[in-house]
Amino acid sequence: TTKTQKSIFKYERVKMNYVLDVQYNGDSDGLVACIGFKNWNDKKASYAKTHFIEEIEPYEAGSFYKRELPCLLEALKDLNDIECVVVDGYVWLGETTHHGLGMHLYNALGQSVPIIGVAKTPFLGTPKNCEILRGESIKPLFVTSINIELEEAKNSILQMHGKYRIPTLLKEVDSLCRGK
């Protein structure tokens, strides 16, 4: 008699962190870029893709998310390995009372994915504890988050590759959405 051995392989999909950014071409269309990486200190992206978006909502003061959110969702729609998403901007504004782009994305994704917002300019009322200094810069970045503790979010951004204020992969996604 022959015994058949069964091998059971557990395949665990590696989760990825994604960085998103959008560049508008005039009033009606734009390019959204998405870069994926496995570890916060990765120097190079493991995934990069752009999506041309037509018929973008016009800019509406105080409702910027209406213009940008559909672009971000388009970039993420086929990804099933999302660990965390980093957006160029805020998750919440001021003392966590107003929703920023990141909070709208969090809600659109079913409140299941951690979102980190990294902004380059201060928003009125942003708490001092949201500031981080990278490299030798004396100009802070402003980090906000949801579904991940703020200190962990700040440490994640501090760990990102690059010796300057803006992490390498954040610069890369910005260049990618500008078509460079």
Explain this structure to me?
The chain has 180 residues and is an alpha+beta fold. The chain is built from four helices and nine strands. The strands form two sheets. A seven-stranded mixed sheet has the order 3-2-1-4-7-9-8, with helices on both faces. The chain has a two-stranded antiparallel sheet with strand order 5-6. A hairpin with an 8-residue loop joins strand 8 (131-132) and strand 9 (141-146). The termini are far apart. The model is unreliable at 1-7 (pLDDT under 50).
Question: What would a concise description of this structure say?
Answer:
With 180 residues, this protein is an alpha+beta fold. 22% of the residues lie in helices and 28% in strands. It has helices at residues 65-76, 101-108, 150-159, 168-177; strands spanning 16-25, 29-37, 47-54, 82-88, 92-93, 98-99, 115-119, 131-132, 141-146.
What's the helix count?
Answer: 4
Largest sheet: 7 strands, mixed
What Rg is obtained from the alpha carbons, in whole angstroms?
18 Å
The percentage helix is: 10-25%
Q: Uncertain runs with pLDDT below 50, 5 residues or more?
A: 1-7
Question: What features would you highlight for this structure?
Answer:
disordered N terminus, alpha+beta, 180 residues, 7-stranded mixed sheet, 9 strands, two-stranded antiparallel sheet
Topology:
Layout: E1 16-25, E2 29-37, E3 47-54, H1 65-76, E4 82-88, E5 92-93, E6 98-99, H2 101-108, E7 115-119, E8 131-132, E9 141-146, H3 150-159, H4 168-177
Parallel strand pairs: 1-4, 4-7
Antiparallel strand pairs: 1-2, 2-3, 5-6, 7-9, 8-9
Helix pairs in contact: 1-2
